[in-house]
């Protein structure tokens, strides 16, 4: 009966209903955009399925201990393996070389510039990248740094017509022929660490570039064990780094950008938590419009004071009246929330280049709109809907139901 009466009131007051629903939709849309940007950038989403358990080294730099001179960016494989090779809290460690742009194609004359990553076998265990044909390079091929390559499906279609046809064929990377052993699904460059177009093994015996063997071009990604916190892992890495530096005589290695995934994508400083900042901004985007909608609802409530007074005179409790008012407005808020959710998905999809990538898109930055339509996000919409309803309706409903019956009926 309450829901039927609520629908009747919506039809009887079309202007109020439309304004309230649109106000709710716009408010929730902007709040949801803030939440969804943070969620998409930090949640465990395939192929980066373990973001909440990851610690990243960045490339680091080395310098002379005596006077901090001769500073050079980069970390050699030998130095990285000494720091990260024996961490008790690590479930998986993968080393990757500098990402470079190389001319790639089916022949030296036909191709284009692509993003090449130098990776090891653990890279394919850490990132859930689906192979549409073939396989990743094996241990023997990696140890020998063979001329093998894994390419994205888009490149395979361009060069050979299909992923299956690419397997076993020669593919030129930097004008050097390599044998295609695997073809992966196309990975969006939204996934910063999993993204690539061409993957090749690296040579672990490369000589270091000086600075007591510290200089090089590697960074490290560490997957923590489930029972090891990110802070504990950072402490283990820093302790291992101290041991390495203590064994050196002239130079020292620094890893100032040691960070979690959220810190890497958002804030690096300890004084500002990215989740807290997004929640705070989202609440501001909700509270300010809720105050405006609350004023609109207060005006509407003043027209219904006589109705509420008569119902109280016939025995309706204050709780019953407030429940009805909240449910009536919850219906409008829910309709507005659904529209706001769809609007937020549309806004985020249309503006994904600058909202998700800051305008610096590269390679394949295709993002499916289905990425935004997830159960967790929908549950978040319901929670925001309830919060918005309470913020905008509770005080007007409280004031309307506390007025004495005689005062309302007499028109005072």
Automatic annotation (TrEMBL):
One of its GO terms (molecular function) is hydrolase activity. It is a multi-pass membrane protein. It comes from Bacteroides intestinalis. It is an enzyme of class 3 (hydrolase). The gene is macB_16. Residues 17-239 form the MacB-like periplasmic core domain. The keyword Protease does not apply. Keywords: ATP-binding, Cell membrane, Hydrolase, Membrane, Nucleotide-binding, Transmembrane, Transmembrane helix. GO terms for cellular component: plasma membrane. Its EC number is 3.6.3.-. Its main location: membrane. The chain crosses the membrane at residues 15-38, 274-297, 330-351, 371-395. Residues 279-404 form the ABC3 transporter permease C-terminal domain. The lineage of its organism: Bacteria, Pseudomonadati, Bacteroidota, Bacteroidia, Bacteroidales. This is Macrolide export ATP-binding/permease protein MacB. It comes from the Bacteria. It is found in: Cell membrane. InterPro entries: ABC3_permease_C, MacB_PCD, Macrolide_Exporter_MacB.
């Amino acid at each position: 009966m309450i829901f039927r009466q609520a629908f009747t009131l919506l039809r009887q007051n079309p202007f109020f209903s439309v304004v309230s629903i649109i106000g709710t939709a716009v408010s929730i849309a902007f709040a949801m955009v803030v939440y969804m940007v943070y969620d998409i950038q930090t949640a465990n989403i395939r192929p980066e399925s373990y973001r909440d358990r990851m610690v990243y080294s960045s490339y680091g730099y080395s310098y002379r201990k005596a006077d901090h001179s001769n500073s050079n960016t980069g970390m050699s494989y030998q130095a990285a393996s000494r720091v990260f090779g024996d961490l008790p809290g690590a479930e998986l460690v993968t080393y990757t070389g500098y990402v470079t742009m190389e001319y790639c194609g089916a022949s030296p004359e036909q191709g284009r510039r692509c993003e090449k990553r130098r990776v090891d076998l653990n890279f394919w265990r850490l990132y859930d990248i689906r192979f549409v044909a073939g396989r990743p390079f094996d241990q023997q091929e990696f140890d020998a740094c063979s001329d093998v390559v894994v390419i994205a499906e888009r490149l395979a279609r361009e060069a050979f017509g299909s992923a299956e046809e690419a397997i076993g064929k020669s593919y030129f990377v930097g004008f050097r022929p390599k044998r295609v052993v695997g073809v992966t699904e196309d990975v969006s460059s939204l996934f910063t660490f999993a993204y690539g177009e061409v993957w090749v093994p690296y040579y672990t015996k490369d000589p270091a570039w000086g600075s007591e063997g510290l200089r090089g071009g590697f960074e490290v990604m560490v997957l923590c064990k489930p029972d090891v916190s990110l802070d504990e892992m950072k402490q283990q890495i820093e302790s291992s780094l101290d041991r390495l530096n203590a064994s050196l005589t002239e130079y020292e290695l620094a890893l100032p950008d040691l960070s979690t995934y959220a810190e890497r994508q958002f804030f690096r400083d300890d004084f500002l938590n990215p989740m807290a900042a997004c929640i705070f901004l989202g609440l501001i985007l909700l509270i300010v419009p809720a105050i405006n909608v609350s004023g609109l609802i207060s005006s509407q409530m003043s027209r219904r004071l006589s109705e509420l007074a008569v119902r109280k005179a016939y025995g309706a409790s204050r709780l019953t009246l407030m429940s009805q008012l909240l449910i009536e407005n919850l219906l409008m808020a829910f309709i507005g929330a659904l529209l706001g959710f769809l609007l937020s998905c549309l806004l985020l999809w249309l503006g994904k280049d600058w909202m998700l990538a800051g305008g610096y898109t590269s390679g394949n930055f295709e993002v499916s709109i289905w990425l935004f339509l997830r159960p967790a996000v929908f549950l978040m919409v319901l929670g925001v809907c309830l919060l918005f309803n309470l913020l905008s309706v509770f005080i007007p409903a409280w004031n309307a139901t506390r007025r004495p019956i005689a005062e309302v009926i007499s028109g005072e």
